[in-house]
Automatic annotation (TrEMBL):
Keywords: Cell membrane, Coiled coil, Membrane, Transmembrane, Transmembrane helix. The lineage of its organism: Bacteria, Pseudomonadati, Pseudomonadota, Betaproteobacteria, Burkholderiales. GO terms for molecular function: protein tyrosine kinase activity. It is found in: Cell membrane. Its main location: membrane. Residues 184-211 form a coiled coil. The chain crosses the membrane at residues 41-60, 274-293. This is Polysaccharide chain length determinant N-terminal domain-containing protein.
C-alpha cells in the first residue's frame, strides 16, 4: 500500500511539473497567437498612433540651432609664438556657462527681469538650457552651441554673447597690465638699491687698492667677490626689466576673436521621424492592450 501511494504521489508530482512546463511553453505561443488573431486591431491602432504623431509634429514649436567659434586671445612677451592665453580654453568654457555670464547676456538682449525661473519667457529658458561650450582638442578654439525659436532670435543672442565675452576678456589684459606695472615698479626699486650698492662697493674697492700691498690682500678679495655678485644681480634685474617692458606693449596683445554666427538652414527640432516612430509604437501598444482587454472580457462573459 505504501508503495502504491508513493507511486501515485510521484506520478502526481511529475504530472504537475509537466503541466507547469507545458503552460510556460504555451504562454509565448498564446501571446504570438493573440498578435496574429488581432493583427487588424494592432495595424489600425498603429496607423492611428502614427497619424497622431504626425499631427503632434506639425503642432510642435520649431527650434533652430546657432553655433559660434571662439578663439581665445593671447598675451605675448615678444612674438606671437612666445605667448600665453588670456585665460585657458576650459576656463572660458566654464565662464560662459556660469549664471553670472548668462544673466549678463540675457540683459544685453533687453530682458531685465533675469532669474525669475519659470516666469522667464520660453526663449530665455531655452537659451539657458541649451547653451553648451565644447573645446576643440589641441587648439585654443571653443565651440558654442545654443537653440532658439527663430533665426532672428538667435542672431540677437549671438550678438549679446559676443559683446559680453569680448568685454570680459578685455578686462583680463587690463588686470594683467596692472600686475605687470606693479612688478616693473618693484623691479626698478630693487635695481636702484643694487646699483647704489654697486657704486658703494666700487668706491670701497678703490680705497683698498690705495693701501699697502700686504694690507689690502684680504679686503680686496672679499670686495671683488661682492662687486662681482652685485654686478650679476644688476644684470639679472635689468633683464627682468626689459622683459616687463616688452610685455607692457599693447602691440603684443592678440585679442579674443568670435566668428560670425552660423545658424542651421532648417529647424533641428522637432524631427518628423521621431514623432512618427513614437506614434506607431504607442499606437501598437494601445492596440495590444485593447486586444487583451477584449479577449479577457469575452472569456468572462462565456463563464
Amino acid at each position: 500500500m505504501q508503495d502504491e501511494n508513493y507511486s501515485r504521489n510521484v506520478t502526481t508530482g511529475n504530472g504537475a511539473a509537466a503541466s507547469a512546463g507545458k503552460s510556460e511553453e504555451i504562454f509565448p505561443m498564446e501571446f504570438i497567437g493573440n498578435l496574429f488573431r488581432n493583427w487588424k486591431i494592432l495595424a489600425v491602432a498603429a496607423v492611428l498612433g502614427g497619424a497622431c504623431g504626425v499631427g503632434a509634429y506639425f503642432f510642435a514649436t520649431p527650434k533652430w540651432q546657432a553655433s559660434l567659434l571662439v578663439q581665445v586671445g593671447k598675451v605675448s612677451a615678444g612674438t606671437e609664438r612666445d605667448s600665453t592665453l588670456i585665460e585657458g580654453v576650459g576656463q572660458t568654457g566654464y565662464r560662459v556657462r556660469s549664471k553670472e555670464f548668462v544673466d549678463s547676456v540675457i540683459r544685453s538682449t533687453g530682458y531685465t527681469e533675469v532669474g525669475a525661473g519659470e516666469a522667464e519667457p520660453p526663449e530665455v529658458r531655452l537659451f539657458r538650457s541649451s547653451l553648451k561650450p565644447a573645446d576643440v582638442p589641441g587648439t585654443d578654439f571653443l565651440k558654442i552651441d545654443f537653440l532658439g525659436y527663430s533665426p532672428e532670435q538667435l542672431k540677437k543672442y549671438a550678438a549679446a554673447f559676443t559683446q559680453e565675452l569680448l568685454a570680459a576678456h578685455n578686462n583680463v589684459p587690463g588686470a594683467l597690465k596692472a600686475d605687470l606695472t606693479a612688478a616693473l615698479e618693484k623691479n626698478k626699486s630693487e635695481l636702484a638699491v643694487a646699483e647704489s650698492s654697486y657704486e658703494r662697493l666700487t668706491k670701497e674697492y678703490a680705497k683698498v687698492l690705495q693701501q699697502p700691498q700686504d694690507a689690502q690682500l684680504l679686503s680686496a678679495s672679499v670686495l671683488t667677490a661682492q662687486v662681482q655678485n652685485n654686478a650679476a644681480l644688476i644684470e639679472s634685474l635689468r633683464k627682468v626689466q626689459r622683459d616687463l617692458d616688452r610685455r607692457l606693449f599693447p602691440t603684443n596683445l592678440y585679442p579674443t576673436v568670435v566668428s560670425a554666427v552660423d545658424i542651421t538652414d532648417r529647424p533641428v527640432s522637432p524631427k518628423l521621424k521621431f514623432f512618427l516612430a513614437g506614434g506607431l509604437v504607442i499606437g501598437f501598444i494601445c492596440g495590444f492592450i485593447f486586444s487583451v482587454f477584449r479577449r479577457t472580457t469575452r472569456l468572462d462573459r462565456m463563464r
